[in-house]
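ESCALATION

Customer reports they have been waiting on this structure for their group meeting. Please prioritize. Original submission:
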Amino acid sequence: MTARVVCLSPFSEDAVRGLIDPRHPVEVILVPDPPAQEAVLEATHLAHLVIADQRHKHRIDRRVLENMRNCQLIQAASVGFDTVDHRAAAELGIPVANCAGYNREAVADWTMLAILALLRRGAWADRQMRTGWWSQQELLGHQLGALTVGIVGLGNVGGTVARRLTGFGSRVIYADPDPSREFPGAERVELEELLATADVVTVHVPLDVDTRGMIGRDAFARMKPGAFFVNASRGPVVDEAALLHALDSGHLGGAGLDVYETEPLAHDSPLRRVDRVFLSPHFAGTTVEARQRLYEMIGTNLNRVLDGEPPFNVVNQVGVGSAGS
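Update from on-call: job pushed to the front of the queue and completed.
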């Protein structure tokens, strides 16, 4: 049987074919760039395997899922899977898998970059130096090892950030709903205590109904005056209006952001005018090594399903027969 593989991510046909063992005959279907929801609906109707949109634009909602007739796996091409209605997929018996942990090292590296840039005003100093500026008085910063860092979400990325922080000598506290998650030398606390205690708060949670908007006006108000905030998870986890209020009021010392409520970030976004914000264009997980690991994980799952084996990293518990890696 020739398996129909529909790719919603911006991959070429050759790239998709390269993910699949040549012994499996496949038909590869690509869809136009978003928005193209009707094209998604039509393409996935008879698909056996679907690669979700890495850009988080094409949505696999209940309407699309109910129109599927043959789907054996929806594979997210990322850690996040919020563009797939995984609960509806579970009702329909369709497994949804993600690429958990593929970019943990890359995102942890970016998180450290953002924290250090904020504490030492590195990006701001670079911009000022290019205008001919020279001063040390405005560059009084903080040593990371002297501070308490709070990690919201001690999963793949959060745990990797904790490991890096130990090398700096920071006190590390964390909040996570999974009681099994822990890290040697890090202290578990409730979220409210973390916000009130940490000098730096960094967020590493998936985007879902429970986390959308979880860091809002109340959360920022609980944070210590002058604290720093970093988000490399997903933009909608944070209420940007509340973040801007906390920055403009002077309550926060600064913020590092790689993700935004709406992407790409608008040219006239108020975030672009705040000097105490370190911005990057959703590239924290983009390294050569992470990309290779992503392709390997996607290919492994597609081939497992074609071989009649259960996929790894299933997020909606459909047909789970093996532990994720």
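Sent to customer with the following note: The CA atoms of residues 263 and 282 lie 8 Å apart.
Escalation resolved.
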